[in-house]
Amino acid sequence: MIGMITTIMTIDKSDLRSHETGMSFVKLDKRDVAVLSILSREGRIAKSALADKVNLSATACGERLARLETAGIITGYQAHVALRRIAPHVTVFVQAELGNHRAEAFQRFEAVIAQHDEIVQCWALGGGFDYLMQVVTRDIDSYQRLMDALLDQQAGLTRYFTYIVTKSVKSAPLPLSMLLPDGED
């Protein structure tokens, strides 16, 4: 939807190893999860309406939002843009494999892809291949020019596999309420 604002939240894989690294999770109660769930679906909701939905005063809800933002749980707000209504485009997922698996090679690849706005998301993965990239560009020709540039920039890319999105089937907010252990409040 054009103009829809949503809360963007990601969990870094280092967060999943908090017990190994000594990093602690932010303790969330059911109202925190409810606030986050509502914001992920209705990012433009008024604070007073949000407060009503989670049974809090507007002041208490505002303080809770500020705490979630300060803690880095709410990392930003953005609009979902219906690109198909603005310009022709192609979305491509790319599995990328590097030839070298040393830390410097991963750092080099990540620095190179950070220079390309067409690469809208990139995940480092374990098993099978090294990265999964999401690319949005005008057409297949511009996508291929991007891949040629990555090869020319000596990003360490040895092999890549291209998957062209033919249609979006599902896009949904994170299932936050499922992530909170049962019985916590």
Quick structural overview:
With 185 residues, this protein is of the alpha+beta class. The chain has helices spanning 18-21, 30-41, 47-53, 58-70, 103-113, 140-152, 176-179; strands at residues 4-7, 77-80, 90-98, 119-124, 131-137, 157-164. α3 (47-53) crosses α4.
Account of the protein in words:
By secondary structure, the chain is α+β, with helices and mostly antiparallel strands. 35% of the residues lie in helices and 21% in strands. The chain is built from 7 helices and 6 strands; from the N terminus they run E-H-H-H-H-E-E-H-E-E-H-E-H. It has helices spanning 18-21, 30-41, 47-53, 58-70, 103-113, 140-152, 176-179, and strands spanning 4-7, 77-80, 90-98, 119-124, 131-137, 157-164. The two termini are 33 Å apart.
The name of the CATH superfamily of the largest domain reads Lrp/AsnC effector binding domain/regulation of amino acid metabolism (RAM) domain
Question: What is the terminal-to-terminal distance?
Answer: 33 Å
Secondary structure tally: strands: 6
- Largest sheet composition: 4 strands, antiparallel
Series of H and E elements: EHHHHEEHEEHEH
- Our count of domains comes out at 2
Number of helices: 7
| Helix/strand/pairing category | alpha+beta
